[in-house]
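Supplementary notes for students who missed Thursday's class. We covered one full example, reproduced here. Read the sequence, then the structure, then the short commentary at the end.
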Amino acid sequence: MVLFPFALGGIVAIVVLLAVSAFFSSSETAIFSLSPEWFDAQAATGDPRGRTLKELHDDPHRLLVTLLVGNNVVNIAISSIVTVLVASSLPSGSAVVVTTLFTSVLVLIFGEIVPKSFGLGNAERWSLTVAGPVRLVERALSPLISILDWITRRMNALISGDANIEKPYTD
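Structure (token representation):
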């Protein structure tokens, strides 16, 4: 039966994507929970991870856009895969309800709440661990991140009068 390998592949993809979602959520919480002085101290140690982390932290808006783009793309992919899997088994009305509830619970627990708690509880160590991968994502998605960074800075300036509204939270 072709359906079983398809479903198994979908489940494996969901598990992998949840791990990536957890990565982005925990990274966001860990990095944004630390003081600017901590980043300065890490950069001064000579550890390349500390320097990378300081560079990322020095542009908090771009860092936030990077993490949110990564997390949202992954979470939408999870939802899409769950929708395909559920839609093949249930009538469309029920499939929408089941998919929405199942995906919400799955992403909230395994992609948001637990990872953010982990990031907060292990902020210093985890921030250093994720510095390189976050930089890699930022560079790989640079054109998209640059466009979204520019758009959201302009929108922030219109809404609040300041293009860098997250700056007080990182100082």
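Commentary. Helices lie at 3-32, 36-44, 48-57, 60-87, 92-121, 123-140, 142-160. The mean pLDDT is 91. If anything here is unclear, bring it to office hours.
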